[in-house]
Amino acid sequence: MPEKITIIGAGVSGLFLGCCLKKNNYHPTIYEKDISLSPYGAGVNLSKNATLLLDKLGLKDELISLGYLPERVNFRSFDNARLIKSVSLNENSNDFISIDRRDLIDVMKEHYLSLNGELIFDHNCSYIKDTEIYFHNKQKTTSDLVIACDGIKSDIRTKYFDNLIPKFSNLVAWRGMTPRSELSSNSLWDQINIYLGPHGHIVHYPISKGNKINFVAIRKQKKWEDESWVSQGHMKELLSVFSSWNEDVLELFSKSDNLHKWGLYERKSIKKLVNGNLLLMGDAAHPMLPFLAQGSCLAIEDAYSFSELLKINTNLNKTLTNYQKLRLKRGNKIQVKSRIQGYMNHLSNRYLIFLRNAFLRIFGKSIQVSIHKYNAIKEIKHLPN
Ligand SMILES: Cc1cc2nc3c(=O)[nH]c(=O)nc-3n(C[C@H](O)[C@H](O)[C@H](O)COP(=O)(O)OP(=O)(O)OC[C@H]3O[C@@H](n4cnc5c(N)ncnc54)[C@H](O)[C@@H]3O)c2cc1C
Question: Which of 102-106, 155-159, 300-304, 312-316 has the lowest mean pLDDT?
Fold first, then answer.
């Protein structure tokens, strides 16, 4: 069994992995490149496949108290907000949570620290050589196992796995939040609404006990010229790009108090998740377009699965093989499905739109269920020892 476990990156995957490993009596160290955890404000939807595992760690109730439990996801047309399909959520249980990413990170970090987890800031991993890890600040450490949780831009993936860099997807996302108190009285704000339009789509949902409405507006764009992947968003541009969309979303945009614009990047599906004593997790393993709201959920599945596999098998090679087998298939599959979902969301041909809407009406619920029903606890039990 590995004596020293190092996690690179304190995002959703790194922090949750830290919590899971501590619960199983391992003592990892997390190294984060930034000087503190100051995540951007943005909403995240967590479906049953993730909340089931958050519950195992005792975090679910706190997340519910900070977030919101939506009852429906409504698919609508972009111009007149006509309902295409409504799918119920949280019918008999509280397993779908909409939350501010800052609250999610905070709950995970506090839990990890309460278990005496070690979290070291200002350590930007520069390279790894066998068991040695080097940081930009000239510090060095050794580790039996290194888990790269360094996000979609993962330098570790590029250097030690596929030698490729992420590619701009020709899609941008504006992300913002609007205080509920600023908006007109409308029950629309209480649920998840997804508007499908030509070359783009918009999602909005309540977070922070319903006091804020988070939105994501996606649109095709030829180039991304900013050096950074996230930039300050400009209201004028957002309102002009979506000027032909319905009044409700325009009201939501115009009253938002915080706007960022993101370039959405992609990487090709990967062929392996393990290279010697190094493994990939979260966005570093399966970076995906966010159209199924599954990036963080899969990061949570990865972290839980790995720490359970480590606990139940004393042979490390077998643990690594099982991790790769289980998570490669799931991650690559959802990555492809997210891309297809984007294509479906952004149709502009009216015959194809008609077919897409008919498909949604018939299969809308089952598509959702098929993704959310994944149970990492059961999947681990089905693996050969
Ligand atoms: C518009 C949009 C909407 C989304 N909506 C949802 C949603 O509703 N539901 C959902 O499940 N997911 C959603 N996601 C996806 C989700 O945000 C990501 O999948 C998730 O944050 C991935 O977590 P991670 O820990 O792998 O990476 P990150 O959260 O990116 O964390 C990586 C960490 O590693 C650190 N790091 C990087 N390099 C180094 C280094 N060299 N040394 C040390 N530290 C390093 C970084 O500073 C960072 O703290 C959305 C994404 C987008 C863009």
Answer: 312-316
Question: Could you give the number of structural domains in the chain?
Answer: 1
Question: Ligand 1 center to residue 218 CA distance, Å?
Answer: 18
Closest ligand 1 atom, residue 288 Cα: 19
CATH code of residue 123? 3.50.50.60
Handedness of CA 269, 272, 278, 281 (dihedral sign): positive
Whether this prediction's pTM lies above 0.85 is answered by: yes
CA distance 360 to 354: 10
Tokens at 365, concatenated: 């619920």
Q: Is the CB of 14 under 6 A from ligand 1?
A: yes
Residues in the chain: 385
Give me the chain's average pLDDT, please.
95
Which candidate, 149, 158, 144, places its Cα nearest to that of 317? Answer: 144
Could you tell me if residue 143 is inside a domain?
yes
Pull the structure tokens for residue 133.
């890890």
- Compute, in angstroms, the gap from residue 12 CA to the centroid of ligand 1: 6
Residue 113 burial (10 A CB sphere; 0-12, 13-18, 19+): middle
CA nearest to 356, candidates 201, 247, 249: 201
Cα–Cα distance between 96 and 91 in angstroms, integer?
A: 10
Q: For residue 147, which of 312, 282, 300, 319 has the smallest C-alpha distance?
A: 282
Q: Does the residue 369 lie in any domain?
A: no
In a domain, 177, yes or no: no
**Residues spanned by the domain of 322:** 5-68+99-166+269-346
Radius of gyration of the chain from Cα atoms?
Answer: 21
Q: Residue 385 — pLDDT band, cuts 50, 70, 90?
A: low
Instruction: Kindly state the helix (H) or strand (E) to which residue 110 belongs, with its residue range.
Output: helix 101-114
> Which is nearest to 28 in space by CA: 59, 3, 52?
3
pLDDT at 76 over 90: yes
Beta strands in 102-191 (DSSP E): 118-120, 125-129, 132-135, 140-142, 145-148, 167-179
For residue 350, the CA-to-ligand 1 centroid distance in Å is: 35
Q: Is residue 199 part of a domain?
A: no
